[in-house]
Model the fold of this input.
Amino acid sequence: MNPPRLQTLALRKEYPGTVALDDVSVSWAGGQVHALLGKNGAGKSTLVKIFAGSVQPTSGQLLVDGREVRLRSPLEALRAGIATVYQELSLIPSLTVAENILLGRLPQARRLGLRRIDWPAAIREAQRLLDEMDAAVDARRQVRDLSVAQQQVVEIAKAFSSRPSVLMLDEPTSALSKHETANLFRLVRQLARQGVAVLYITHRLQELADIADTVTVLRDGKRVGSLPMREADAPTIVQMMFGHVTPRHRPPDLVPGPEPLLEVRGLSRKGKFQDVSFTVRRGEILGIAGMLGSGRTELLRAIFGAEPPDSGEVVVEGRSIRPHDPPSMRALGLALTPENRKEEGLVLSLGTRPNLFLASLDRMARWGVSSNARERHRAQELVAQLAIQTADVDFPVASLSGGNQQKVVIGKWLNTEPRVVLFDEPTRGVDLVAKQQIFEVMWDLTRRGLGCVFVSSELEELVEVCHRILILKDGRIAGEVQPEAITPNDLAVRCMTA
Ligand SMILES: Nc1ncnc2c1ncn2[C@@H]1O[C@H](COP(=O)(O)OP(=O)(O)OP(=O)(O)O)[C@@H](O)[C@H]1O
Ligand SMILES: [Mg+2]
Done:
């Protein structure tokens, strides 16, 4: 067994109202990939932030290669050889990919006696790194023009570029396709073979067998246990993470009615999607499956009016507005829970309560002036319905764990009393039990006669939750399947070949 590269002794982190880490002692050997697991709010990101130097522990020790270290800043952590890829992307949108990757150490050249940044060399170096990662990203592009998945790849390239001895990845694959995930795994293993200790956080338990050598589980800030991957079968891990879990299935009584709620007619946007038509009926959950880049997010955004389509029409309960924009679609009863919660979903500096009301201020106002008590009551209802874990609904949303922030985004749109909800990757970064809570919310909506459109990269979820699934391929509807008649694997094949 390799000696531990990284170790914690009785590590503790307290926040107001929360003990995020409680007496955590673990050691991680070099040359291996260590999965760090736990439900939403278990303390995983807190541990990573402590190693990354961006959060200071309340007490306890950190050891790197057997020596105690104090990591007072991200720079000190980087100097100690620890590189981190955060759960929330941290790139600067207005800079190029090359600048982001090499930030703080752009290559310089002397010209006419002056030191300047050597741009051709910077671009060459960043591109070489991206090519080494087999990532189809142009180092000269601005980060703001990249998809979430491409940004994730850049973030990882940036961490790799410091050639660290410890690499921490907080849910790195949540926005990646199968192909990109496979590439990432290849690279991570290559790094581990060079002696790097990799700490790997994921909620996708299926990937563990492909990437992890050991598994450590946290629960409520405490270490539940660590074991080698070969002893960690799925039931054991789930038991360690949650205790007992009862799997839930789509209730058989949820049968869609005949009336159309949402009709999308011949919607097109150049270069994104063409001639898309479908209907969602009352009480129906319609799934949309497709590969990364097939146009799913763009389609939902266009239906909601966030990106205007070139042609086509969106009708909600027989009514349409043209040209349509998000406020008018919201007035018609449409809601969209977006894929990228940080940019489009939440104001991180505000509390959970104001965030829950961001999309429904007009409706809340109708209830009367400054109805503080009622607002608080409604917030608590939503927090309970979605099991949002927060010490206080007035603490900033930034203090919530990643999965709990995702639930606030969903709550915010549920509070607009929509007729149809478009869900774009609602379960990203959300643990197994919280996923089921979100499914319950969807089923509950349809039971009340609403309609849902559900986009997810997790095809198992679509098969589990939906009444009907459309396959989107290169921006066109390439087929429709009944979930009862298809397995997730066959659906994946259809998405690629349809
Ligand atoms: N800055 C902060 N202020 C107050 N509480 C915080 C802060 N950061 C984290 N917490 C709390 O600490 C606990 C652990 O959060 P952490 O982000 O480590 O969870 P996690 O395991 O990464 O969860 P997820 O899977 O949802 O990302 C949570 O209860 C969270 O609300
Ligand atoms: Mg987290």
Remarks:
- The radius of gyration is 23 Å.
- The chain is about 35% helix and 25% strand.
